[in-house]
Write a structure and sequence with these properties.
Chain lengths: 769, 154
């Protein structure tokens, strides 16, 4: 609520004005301690057209966006959008992304929000439409012809009946400002007229990447730059006792040992020198605070107090319906902590001087980082500039923000620009993990095999998160440097929900989602209760591609299959009987049809209990309750002697509204699908009684290229008349359940704990009746 | 510190570094090359691969002192923006990447393997790539690009 009012307050400022508006800045920093602003929020943007679009004397278009390229094709798609709305060739649009000195504050590039935020009737798309109308209005005056008799092509407006009468954008406004606000009613170009948007335009960065020319944040080199290496505590909860600087005295290249509260870093002339010195530096720490036993961690979660309780829906008749049901089905699902584990460890370059700082960062959130880096450095926010440079794919809040603080702290201490790239272990042991979950599911069925009530109760740990605009302690470096993570606010009992939202997909697809008479769900079951207990996490946590949505969808879509199996119903048909949303129904049908789904109950008949067994499973979701439809069929083989699962084929159907770039969309869906395979079969954070032990690619297991990669087929459902939705997180969300359901179909064994390691699969196979 | 004369992408360079320095740091920091990248520093992901004597070598675990007079080829040594190498072109044509940070390892490993064994079977290619990581999970397109390169080569 508070964040919203601030956003309103900020709406008046423009791009260059946003960066330096005193009113805006004051408003941004009147914050509640511990409350992270801009946590997954889209930022205020700007209502000034000049903040988004500038037209040069040559008629070329420069557009400014606060949503950055993270490897998902957004830079190209946004360039297509502006080229389309302004009817200029793609090559004549230059997009400036995520630089606090130039681009509007659009908060964080996250949550599959970039497509809905910038491609609907707001922000960048609206700026494009407003600019086109403004240019047409000027041309109308200049040419003395009504707007409806004008046409636009390649940045030139001409009279339809007399094309010789024409004027270019450059002539109309080149080099001058529009000086107007966005027009909320500006008409977008209809998808039926698109010639650039909606086309599979190749991504602009790819040739430079393929030839080794692309400048990642890792390649930023600043004159006078030196190199920093962090020394993290050896255990969770350990604090600094002493640093013996003499232990590295005389080592080549060492510039300075930097200590700030529990933050320790070494700066040297060269990276290898910094690494050597950091390894040799004698640092004494207190013992760690101790970690709960991993083997019983899910029980630990369930028993944590206090909790923060949330009802997403509560029809208040669930107990009664369960009591009167013909039959009740129950199951419990477990999900581990997983990590972003970016391929390249996080890197940043900071140049901090006495009264100003410049930070090159792969952060998803340049404006929020500007605010929190200022807090870490003790500078005024207006003195900090954050410039986005692409990093290794992040999939959420990886080490990009924390390493930006690392570089900034060390640069401030030595008075020179400092580059820091984290060691693999320093990133993996301390990042903000995707959260573990324990989920209890119960469903009441009536005599004819229809679900009459659905009851969900979950426990999930939380600590820190995105730093937002005011909580640098939400990530490890800010915390070590003396800032507290966002406070854990306990709340029991949970208040009644006031409106329907399904941002975490805690509510299954098969209920009506009715709250206060408004029904936002996608299903038919009216009796429903969804209760989530957040508890304190021993590790930092934060959004990891499909945060909570994936974990919840694993539980919902596995449970739906278990219910169907208990009734000997076909899993697809049983889903369709309980769904009401036509677009969700369509993706389910489409995936099933493309996969040549063989309608029958699971498990398949005639299962032999030895050798290789094969089966298929279905899963579906409306991501975040309103942000992208996806259904998947997984086909697997299970080696019943070893428990090894091989995913052979994934077929998925996706509907994210109007498709901006079909090849980019396919790339996201394919990557999401395989990311899902990796997370379902392999990935799990591990720890001992003091520290995280999954700290490299031998202890944290990802899906490598090679023979274990399934075929992936994508079906794109284009909906030109609908709103743009997200798609980068849809596919990953449905994979775990699709695979679990396929394993069950193949073998009759049910996997309820991710990842499905051979040991767990073997145990489930051995437990078959 | 010791002086090393390196031949990189057909050019001679002299660097004065600690002999234990991994080759990667010399390439990316002393010579400011952008192809080879630090992914793990442990030889577990392929990010730092360069080609030496026809082999994809993990430069993050190869001391500069071990290279000797051998010619080192990096991703930027294969082709240019204007004239990409056939394998680079295959990756561009297939749009076979997302963040692209791993592309160096994928391209250099595949190129070294297929140049040595142009008629490798699909199973052999998969095996050869099985120590290379891509966290955006662009595996499907990457395999398509590698096969396209194999076809173009033959």
């Amino acid at each position: 609520m508070r964040a919203l009012s601030r956003r309103k307050f900020l709406k008046g400022s423009g791009a260059l004005i946003v960066g330096f508006s005193a009113a805006g800045l004051t408003a941004r920093f009147v914050t509640i301690p511990g409350e992270a602003v801009a946590q997954g929020i889209n930022g205020p943007g700007s209502n000034q057209l000049d903040s988004w679009i500038a037209i040069g004397a040559d008629g070329n278009v420069t557009a400014y966006t606060g949503k950055c390229e993270l490897g998902h094709g957004l830079y190209t798609a946004q360039t297509q959008l502006i080229a389309e709305e302004l009817s200029v060739p793609f090559e004549r649009v230059k997009l400036i992304q995520c630089d606090t000195a130039f681009t509007p504050d659009q908060g964080t590039t996250s949550g599959a929000q970039s497509h809905p935020t910038n491609f609907n009737q707001s922000n960048l798309a609206l700026a494009g439409a407003t600019a086109r109308e403004a240019l047409l209005a000027r041309a109308s005056t200049r040419l003395g012809v009504p707007v409806d008799q004008l046409g636009v092509k390649d940045g030139v407006i001409s009279v339809k009946a007399d094309p010789a009468k024409k004027v270019s954008y450059g002539e109309l406004i080149g080099g001058r400002t529009f000086s107007m606000t966005l027009n909320p009613n500006a008409k977008r170009k209809p998808a039926s007229e698109w010639t650039v948007l909606g086309k599979p335009i190749p991504r602009v960065e790819i040739p430079a990447i393929a030839t080794g020319q692309f400048e990642y944040v890792h390649n930023v080199r600043v004159p006078g730059m030196v190199h920093g290496r962090v020394v993290r505590p050896p255990a969770v909860g350990a604090t600094l006792v002493s640093v013996d600087e003499s232990s590295v005295q005389g080592m080549p290249g060492v510039v300075k040992i930097v200590v700030k509260k529990n933050f320790v870093g070494v700066v040297a002339e060269k990276p290898w020198q910094a690494i050597q010195a950091a390894n040799k530096l004698k640092v004494v720490w207190t013992p760690g605070s101790g970690l709960p036993n991993q083997g019983t961690f899910h029980e630990y979660l369930r028993n944590q107090k206090p909790t923060r309780d949330t009802f997403s829906v509560n029809s208040k008749d669930v107990d009664e319906k369960l009591a009167s049901a013909a039959r009740v089905v129950k199951a419990t699902y477990h999900y581990p902590y997983q990590m972003h584990a970016s391929f390249g460890s996080a890197c940043a370059v900071a140049d901090v001087q006495a009264d100003k700082a410049t930070i090159y960062s792969a952060t998803q959130a340049v404006h929020p980082l500007k605010s929190t880096a200022a807090m870490v450095l003790g500078l005024k926010p207006e003195s900090v500039r954050v410039i986005f440079k692409m990093g290794s794919g992040c999939y959420g809040v990886n080490g990009a923000d924390t390493v930006s603080y690392d570089a900034a702290l060390m640069s401030q201490a030595v008075g020179k620009p400092v580059r820091v790239q984290l060691a693999r272990k320093d990133e993996m042991a301390w990042e903000n993990y995707g959260v573990a979950f324990v989920i209890d599911q119960r469903a009441g069925l009536n005599a004819d095999g229809t679900i009459v009530t659905w009851d969900y109760e979950a426990w999930t740990p939380t600590l820190g998160g995105r730093p937002g605009g005011n909580a640098p302690g939400n990530v490890v470096t800010g915390f070590l440097a003396g800032f507290e993570p966002q406070a854990f606010a306990a709340r029991t009992p949970a208040p009644d929900p006031t409106n329907f939202g399904n941002g975490n997909n805690a509510v299954p697809s098969y209920v009506t989602g009715c709250v206060n008479g408004r029904c936002g769900g996608t299903g038919r079951v009216a009796s429903q209760r969804v209760m989530t207990h957040d508890v304190k996490s021993p590790f930092f946590t934060g959004p990891l591609r499909s945060p909570a949505r994936l974990q919840n969808t694993f539980a919902h879509e596995s449970f739906m299959d278990e219910i169907a199996a208990s009734l000997k119903a076909d899993p697809v048909d049983f889903r369709l009987r309980h769904l009401s949303d036509p677009r969700l129904i369509e993706v389910v049908k489409s995936a099933a049809k493309t996969a040549k789904w063989d309608a029958r109950p699971s498990p398949r008949s005639g299962i032999r209990r030895t050798g290789i067994a094969s089966g298929r499973g279905m899963s579906c979701v409306l991501y975040e309750g309103d942000n992208g439809y996806c259904a998947m069929v997984a086909e697997v083989e299970v080696d019943q002697s070893t428990g090894k699962v091989s995913v052979k084929r994934l077929v998925l159907a996706n509907d994210c509204g109007p498709i901006s770039n079909p090849d980019g969309l396919r790339n996201q869906l394919e990557g999401g699908a395989l990311h899902g395979v990796s997370r379902t079969l392999l990935e799990e954070v591990t720890w001992d009684d003091q520290k995280v032990t999954s700290i490299d690619w031998r202890t944290y297991h990802p899906l490598y290229l090679g023979p274990d990669v399934p075929k992936v087929e994508t079906v794109l459902i284009n909906q030109p008349g609908e709103k743009a939705m997200g798609s980068g997180e849809t596919a990953v969300t449905v994979v775990a359940a699709a695979i679990a359901n396929a394993i069950f179909d193949a073998t009759g064994a049910r996997l309820r704990q991710v990842p499905f390691t051979p040991e767990r699969v073997k145990a489930a196979l051995d437990a078959r009746a | 510190m010791s002086t090393f004369n390196l031949k990189v992408n057909g050019r001679a360079h002299t660097v004065d570094v600690d002999p234990a320095t991994p080759l990667l740091y010399v390439l990316s920091d002393d010579l400011e090359l952008r192809g080879p990248k630090f992914g793990c520093g442990l030889g577990q992901c392929g990010s730092c691969a360069v080609i030496i004597k026809g082999e994809a070598v993990r430069s993050c675990v190869t001391p500069v002192s071990a290279v000797g007079a051998s010619e080192i080829t990096t991703l930027e040594g294969l082709g240019t923006l204007e004239k990409p190498h056939a394998i680079q072109k295959a990756f561009i044509d297939e749009q076979a990447m997302q963040c692209g940070f791993c592309v160096n390892g994928v391209v250099m490993t595949a190129k070294a393997f297929l140049d040595r064994k142009p008629k490798a079977t699909e199973t052999e290619i998969l095996q050869a790539m099985s120590g290379v990581l891509c966290r955006c999970n662009t595996h499907v397109r990457m395999m398509r690009a590698i096969k396209r390169y194999q076809e173009v080569k033959s």
